[in-house]
Amino acid sequence: MVVRDLDEALDVVRREGHRVTASRRLVLEALLSADAPVSAEAIATGLDGRLPSSDLASVYRNLETLGDLGLVRHIHAGHGPGRYLLAGEQDREYLACESCGRLEAVEADALADVRAAIRELSGFEARFSHFPIVGRCRDCARGG
Amino acid sequence: MVVRDLDEALDVVRREGHRVTASRRLVLEALLSADAPVSAEAIATGLDGRLPSSDLASVYRNLETLGDLGLVRHIHAGHGPGRYLLAGEQDREYLACESCGRLEAVEADALADVRAAIRELSGFEARFSHFPIVGRCRDCARGG
DNA sequence: ATACTTGCAAATGATTTGCCAGTGT
DNA sequence: ACACTGGCAAATCATTTGCAAGTAT
């Protein structure tokens, strides 16, 4: 399910028997306009005022609903709150820098060798889509 | 700092100007007798009654103190509480199965190739010692 | 009209902190 | 003695849940 624009996503919502509400629209607009995964809190405040705001509990409920519909997913990168993103970027995974907090996007294919190397160890199937690889990005590794 | 027995660890505690107390002893004994990383809660209950119990807040404070002394470390494996272990197993890292919850220990060396492959991507230095690799173990991957 | 949703408050789980009485050294 | 600790309650952070009032269909 690749989400490219708001109407397409709202169609899915309606088609699956859910209602199109302001809160739901906000969540999708926020994710559509964000250039990186964002927290539920950030969505609830309308990305700091750039969009209308909504109740945090409703945002969480809607993130879950939209997740069930396959429109949204989220990642847990190190400490801090979960970060949500559109499922459209299904083939994109992240490297989380524990120093500067940035998420570095990589194509899932690029991690194929990594997954294979881990599978060799004991048949373990690594999944980085929900719990990304944590470490230090190039800049932070160089710095301190 | 490789911890092999209680007295050795307590010597470090004293040497660094900290006091040897029942709660501190409990934390170390629990970690010494556990065969896998355990939660603060499990330590506070004396591994379910096998050892004397202690206040949860004290356990957390002691885990932090012992961590500062380099005697203890902890990992965040998927959802759920953090799991603590002796720093003696410094060279041991874990693969966390999100299906059955088990932690599979692997020698850090075994992940050298994995780390190298990730470094190739963008100079990112992966660190699995604090946020382990999450996925499904061989048994769960086969099952469902 | 009516089931799905919202907003607000209260509950949860993990962890932290304030405070004062207790105790290693 | 005295600063370091422990116990207990209350605070925090992220997230979930209960419930009555609101609204999309």
In words, what does this structure look like?
2 copies of one chain form a homodimer. Chain A has 144 residues and is α+β, with helices and mostly antiparallel strands. Chain A has 2 domains: 6-86, Winged helix-like DNA-binding domain superfamily/Winged helix DNA-binding domain (Arc Repressor Mutant, subunit A), CATH 1.10.10; 92-141, 2-Layer Sandwich (Dna Ligase, domain 1). In chain A, 42% of the residues lie in helices and 17% in strands. Chain A contains 7 helices and 6 strands, in the order H-H-H-H-H-E-E-E-E-H-E-E-H. Chain A has helices at 6-15, 22-33, 40-44, 46-49, 56-68, 112-122, 138-142; strands spanning 72-75, 83-86, 92-97, 103-107, 125-126, 133-136. Chain A has a 3-stranded mixed sheet. In chain A, strands 1-2 form a two-stranded antiparallel ribbon. In chain A, strand 3 (92-97) and strand 4 (103-107) form a beta hairpin. The radius of gyration of chain A is 17 Å and the shape is globular. The N and C termini of chain A lie far apart (41 Å). The mean pLDDT of chain A is 95. Chain A binds chain B through residues 76, 78-79, 95, 97-98, 104, 106, 110-111, 113-114, 117-118, 121-128, 130-131, 133-138, 141, and chain B through 76, 78-79, 95, 97-98, 104, 106, 110-111, 113-114, 117-118, 121-128, 130-131, 133-138, 141. Chain A binds a DNA duplex (25 and 25 nucleotides) through helix 2 and helix 5.
